[in-house]
């Protein structure tokens, strides 16, 4: 399963660069292993860092978005599962 960088930051695909920066700062602060004792904090912190790395660069983000659209067309069932997991995760997690 491919990582959903937008979900890692709690954003939609139409997020602005300012939204991405703000979400990154908030999530990185929350999941930083020095501040968060949760067993998955380090893993989630790394996911947030990777998401910011991809989404904050215009060219990398365009390539990522193009790949997401292509995957939607190539495997709609898997895409639907990923969308549902992202949605349910955002509703049921902090």
UniProtKB/TrEMBL annotation:
<feature type="domain" description="J">
    <location>
        <begin position="4"/>
        <end position="68"/>
    </location>
</feature>
<keyword id="KW-0346">Stress response</keyword>
<dbReference type="InterPro" id="IPR050817">
    <property type="entry name" value="DjlA_DnaK_co-chaperone"/>
</dbReference>
<dbReference type="InterPro" id="IPR018253">
    <property type="entry name" value="DnaJ_domain_CS"/>
</dbReference>
<protein>
    <submittedName>
        <fullName>Heat shock protein DnaJ domain protein</fullName>
    </submittedName>
</protein>
<dbReference type="Pfam" id="PF00226">
    <property type="entry name" value="DnaJ"/>
</dbReference>
<dbReference type="InterPro" id="IPR036869">
    <property type="entry name" value="J_dom_sf"/>
</dbReference>
<dbReference type="InterPro" id="IPR001623">
    <property type="entry name" value="DnaJ_domain"/>
</dbReference>
């Amino acid at each position: 399963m491919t990582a959903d960088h937008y979900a890692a930051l709690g954003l939609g695909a139409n997020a602005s660069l300012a939204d991405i920066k703000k979400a990154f700062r908030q999530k990185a602060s929350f999941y930083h292993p020095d501040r968060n004792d949760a067993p998955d904090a380090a893993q989630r912190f790394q996911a947030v860092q990777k998401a910011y790395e991809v989404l904050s660069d215009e060219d990398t983000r365009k390539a990522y978005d193009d790949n997401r659209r292509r995957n939607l067309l190539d495997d709609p069932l898997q895409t639907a599962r990923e969308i549902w997991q992202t949605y349910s995760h955002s509703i049921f997690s902090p």
